[in-house]
Amino acid sequence: MIQLIKLRTIGEDNYQQCLNLRASVEKESFVDSVAYSLAEAWVFYQDTRPFAIYNDDNMIGFVSMYIGEENHQIVNFLIDDAFQRKGLGAEAAKVCISYLQKEYHASRISVPVELENMVAQTFWRKLGFSFSDDVEDGYVFMRLYLA
Asked: Which of 55, 58, 51 is nearest to 9 (CA)?
């Protein structure tokens, strides 16, 4: 089965569905709510790009990316519970990496991950991210360097 993962702008037609996305995690602090992320993106609109993640025509998740100061980051990334454990998260993350590389010529992408969130650390390591020495407010910044 071919999966067509794409990022779509959040607007009138899909924001409510986006707000209903849920990703169960070990601790609530591991993933910001979509509402919080959208509010943050609105405040920092010049440097933040929020998107709904779709597989074909089904909304499966959410991502917020920071693009300012040549410091490209995948800040909040979640796949809804109904779509987890199907390989969609890894494919969606690759689409986000490609977006930052193509649209903003990112040569380094960072992901802040809570020090206690071993599941997320394993997920990003499988995609080629490695730990940096940068730790801030309980988050370690994992980094991917692109050619």
From this structure: 51
27 vs 44: CA distance, rounded Å: 26
Q: How many CB atoms lie within 10 A of CB 13?
A: 10
Sorted by sequence, the CB contacts under 8 Å of residue 59 that are 6+ apart come out as: 14, 17, 18, 21, 52, 53, 80
CA–CA dist 10, 62 (Å, integer):
10
- DSSP 8-class letter at 85: T
Give the pLDDT confidence of 34-78 residue by residue, as tens digits: 999 999 999 999 999 999 999 999 999 999 999 988 899 999 999
CA dist., res. 114 & res. 136, Å (int):
9
Beta-bridge partners for 7: 53
Q: Which two tokens stand for residue 118?
A: 């071993």
